[in-house]
Design goal:
single chain, about 475 residues, Glutamine Phosphoribosylpyrophosphate, subunit 1, domain 1, Rossmann fold, 2 domains, 7-stranded antiparallel beta sheet, 6-stranded antiparallel beta sheet, 13 helices, binds guanosine-5'-monophosphate, binds magnesium ion
Length: about 475
C-alpha cells in the first residue's frame, strides 16, 4: 500500500523533492473505438473539452496496423485546417490529446501528445496521458543509464519506456508492470494496432469515462463530451486501478483490475476544472458547485449584501447556490469576455508575468459600474490561487463605489502545490500559503473574505459525489508524496 503523507515543510523542500522540475499537465483525452471515421468523432469530443487544454492538440488514428498522425501546437478549437479527416486520419479507432496551457517551457513540439512509438519489442503503440507522474525522477535516470533516449520532456514518456523495457512477453503484461512502477497520477489511453487500453491510476485522481455509440465506444476525460452525439449514452467511469481493453471490431470490452483502488479524486475537477455539465459518480459538477455555495451560507449564516455577483464563469454555480439559500439577489454585473480563436484573453491564469495576467483578467471581467455605487456586494468565485482575479474584481468594485465588498470562495484556501496535474507549481506563488485569511483579505482589498472550510467541502462531497478525494492543495492529505 502506498503511504499517505501530507506535504508540509519549507519551500526548499519543494525544490529538494523535485516538484518544480515536474511539469504539471492537466489535459484532455478523447478516443473513438470501432466507429467508422473515428478520427472525426474523437476530434469533436476533444473540441468539447477545450477547457482541459489549449496549448497543443494531437490525434492519431489507426488503420490496417498503420498509425496516422497530426499534431499542432495550438488549441483544439483552431481545428486542423487543411486536414481531410477521412483521407488523412482514416480508420475505425482514433485518440486525441489536448494539452493544458501552463506557464513555463512546455512549448516544444515534441511534447505534444499522443507520443508515438513505431517499433518496440512490444510492437507499436501510441500513448496519451492526463495527470502528472510522481516519483519518476529516479526511474527516468535509471532508464537513461540503460540507454533510453527521451524524445520529449514529458513525464508521460517515462511510462512508455517502462513498457518497452519490461521483460513481460505481451503488451498487456508490460503495461501492468509499468503501471505498478508509477503510482500516480494518470489517466491514460494506449493505442496499439488492434487494441485500445483506457486506464486510471489506483487513486482515480483524474477522470475518465466510457460512452456508447450505436457502433463502438467513446472514451473521454469528461462525459460531457459524449453529448456531442445525441445518440450516445454514458456507460460508466473507468474505475481507479482499472484497465479497460477494447479490441478491434469487438462490441464489448474487458476489464482488468491491476491495482487495489484507493480513491483520491482531485476535487478541484469538481470545484473548477471540469465542465459544469460533466458528471462524476453521476452527479453534475454544476449541482456540486451549487451545494458548495449553499454550504458557504450554512457556515456563515450572518452573510449579508444587496446582491451576489458571480465572477463568471467559474463562480457562477456556487453563486447560484448561495443565492438559492440566502435569497440575496443574484446579478451578473460582471460579464465574462469569452475567448475567441487565438485570443490571448483565454490565458489569464497561465500568462507568464503578473502584469500580463492582470491585463488579461481586467479585460475578461466587464463590470456594470452604474449599478455598484453605494452597494454592499457579495462576490463569488471558485478559488484564489495567485489572487490576480480577486484583486482586479475588488479594485473595480471599489472604483465603482461599492460600499462593502464581501468575497466568498467556494473552496478552502489553496495552501500547497499540486503534484498531480494542476498548475500550482510552488507554494510561493500561492496567496494563501503561510498566510491567514485576514492577510489574504487585505491583499485582495475586500472588506470581508469567506472561504469554504475543508470540513464543509468534505461534507458536500459526502452528500454529492460520495467519493474519496485528494485535499493536498488545501493542506490535507496527498495520496502519494512526490519524491
Ligand atoms: P488567481 O486569479 O487567484 O490566480 O486564480 C483564480 C482564478 O483562476 C479563479 O477564477 C479560477 O477559476 C481560476 N483557476 C483556478 N485554478 C486554475 C487552473 O489550474 N487553471 C486555470 N486556467 N484557471 C484556474
Ligand atoms: Mg475563474
Amino acid at each position: 500500500m502506498q503511504q499517505i503523507i501530507s506535504l508540509k515543510g519549507s519551500l526548499d523542500e519543494e525544490q529538494e523533492l523535485g516538484i518544480k522540475g515536474i511539469f504539471p499537465e492537466e489535459c484532455g483525452l478523447s478516443a473513438a473505438v470501432n466507429i467508422p471515421f473515428a478520427s472525426e468523432y474523437a476530434f469533436k469530443c476533444a473540441s468539447a473539452q477545450d477547457h482541459r487544454g489549449e496549448k497543443g492538440v494531437g490525434i492519431v488514428s489507426v488503420r490496417k496496423s498503420k498509425f496516422y498522425i497530426e499534431k499542432r501546437r495550438w488549441s483544439v478549437i483552431l481545428g486542423l485546417p487543411g486536414v481531410n479527416f477521412k483521407k488523412d486520419l482514416p480508420g475505425k479507432t482514433a485518440i486525441v490529446h489536448n494539452r493544458y496551457a501552463t506557464e513555463g517551457d512546455s512549448d516544444s513540439p515534441s511534447n505534444v501528445q499522443p507520443l508515438v512509438f513505431q517499433e518496440t519489442s512490444k510492437g507499436s503503440f501510441v500513448l496519451a496521458h492526463n495527470g502528472t507522474m510522481n516519483n519518476v525522477r529516479s526511474i527516468k535516470k535509471d532508464l537513461m543509464k540503460k540507454g533510453v533516449a527521451f524524445q520529449s520532456t514529458t513525464d508521460s514518456e517515462i511510462m512508455a519506456h517502462l513498457i518497452t523495457h519490461s521483460n513481460e512477453d505481451t503488451i498487456e503484461k508490460a503495461i501492468i508492470s509499468a503501471l505498478n512502477q508509477i503510482t500516480a497520477a494518470y489517466s491514460l489511453l494506449i493505442l496499439t494496432p488492434n487494441k485500445l487500453f483506457a486506464i486510471r491510476d489506483r487513486f482515480g485522481i483524474r477522470p475518465l469515462s466510457i460512452g456508447k455509440l450505436k457502433s463502438g465506444f467513446l472514451v473521454c476525460s469528461e462525459n460531457y463530451a459524449f453529448d456531442q452525439y445525441p445518440s450516445s449514452s454514458y456507460l460508466r467511469e473507468v474505475e481507479p486501478g482499472e484497465i479497460i481493453v477494447f479490441e478491434k471490431n469487438k462490441d464489448s470490452f474487458e476489464s482488468i483490475k491491476y491495482a487495489e483502488p484507493d480513491e483520491h479524486f482531485c476535487i478541484f475537477e469538481g470545484i473548477y476544472f471540469s465542465h459544469p455539465r460533466t458528471t462524476y459518480k453521476e452527479y453534475y459538477n454544476e449541482d456540486f458547485r451549487q451545494e458548495l455555495g449553499k454550504q458557504i451560507l450554512i457556515e456563515n449564516p450572518d452573510l449579508q449584501g444587496d446582491f451576489i455577483l458571480p465572477v463568471l464563469d467559474s463562480g457562477k454555480h456556487a453563486a447560484i447556490g448561495l443565492f438559492k439559500k440566502s435569497r440575496i439577489d443574484y446579478k451578473e454585473y460582471f460579464l465574462r469576455k469569452h475567448k475567441t480563436s487565438g485570443d490571448p484573453v483565454s490565458r489569464s491564469f497561465t500568462s507568464a508575468t503578473y502584469q500580463e495576467r492582470k491585463e488579461v483578467a481586467f479585460k475578461k471581467l466587464h463590470l456594470r459600474k452604474d449599478k455598484i455605487r453605494g452597494k454592499s456586494v457579495v462576490v463569488v468565485d471558485d478559488s484564489i490561487v495567485r489572487s490576480t482575479t480577486m484583486k482586479i474584481a475588488c479594485e473595480r468594485l471599489r472604483n465603482a463605489g461599492a460600499s462593502y465588498i464581501t468575497v466568498c470562495i467556494s473552496a478552502p484556501p489553496i495552501v500547497s502545490i499540486c503534484p498531480n496535474g494542476m498548475a500550482y507549481r510552488t507554494r510561493k506563488q500561492l496567496t494563501a500559503y503561510n498566510r491567514t485569511t485576514e492577510d489574504v483579505r487585505k491583499t485582495i482589498g475586500a472588506d470581508r473574505l469567506i472561504y469554504l472550510s475543508l470540513k464543509g467541502l468534505k461534507d458536500v462531497v459526502g452528500k454529492t459525489y460520495k467519493c474519496g478525494i485528494c485535499t493536498g492543495c488545501f493542506g490535507g492529505k496527498y495520496p502519494v508524496i512526490p519524491r
